[in-house]
Amino acid sequence: MKLTYLLPLLAAQAMAQAQVQDVQSVLQATDKFRMTAENLQVDTQINVLNADGTPDKERRYTVFAQAKRQSLVVMQSPAEKGQKVLMLSDDFWLLMPGSQRPLRITPMQKLLGDASTGDIATMSWADDYAGKLVGEEPCEVAAKQTCLHLSLNATRKGVTYQRIELWVGKTRFEPVRADLYVLSDKLAKQATFVMDKPAAPTMVLEMVLADQVSNHKTTHVRYLSRKVRQVPPEWLNPMFLVRNPALD
């Protein structure tokens, strides 16, 4: 009798483990549409629109997204020139020109509009989240397309969002849209992703963030260019960056 009860339990556990592995494989494929190589230089432009659609602000950033969850964000607009954000795993620092010390910040700290440091510095999900497949659902942005709905929970403390409801293409697993929840499980933002070739996508060109909490502004994060680049190790050292060196 014990074996009769044990077999269904073991089968359920095996199915659950297989689903977890499948979700991680999907996330790894999804990540490649944003992080097209292990080490990248990504020129990024952020445009913020007010709730009525009128322009608010615009900023430019150079993001050096590196392997092992390391990123350096260099601010390029005149209003922020010389400022940098460094991400090393769960640790974030803001480096200000003229300051003698790097300042600890959180991944939720705003850069511009509703784009946080984590939104700009992090371009992958597979290393930070685990979850389950909810099922197949129509994609809102393309009624004829069927998406896989993934429910993701953070596995690290230094992530921007504690939970993500993510919809990806059923065939290629490209990101389509996401509901982004903070630690209190409040829906903070809704993201949609603009692909280079809707019929046969290869990379994300733009992420659009719609505020769901307060100002209801829309923030467009445009990836203007990507190129493979591994930065020197000292660029990922906050004590080196605090000297405000020229980064060429």
UniProtKB/TrEMBL annotation:
Protein's UniProt name: Uncharacterized protein TP-0789 domain-containing protein
Signal sequence extent: 1-18
Keyword vocabulary terms for this entry: Signal
Entry-linked Pfam families: LolA_like
Domain Uncharacterized protein TP-0789: 68-239
Lineage top rank: taxon: Bacteria
InterPro entries: TP_0789-like (IPR033399), UCP028205 (IPR011220)
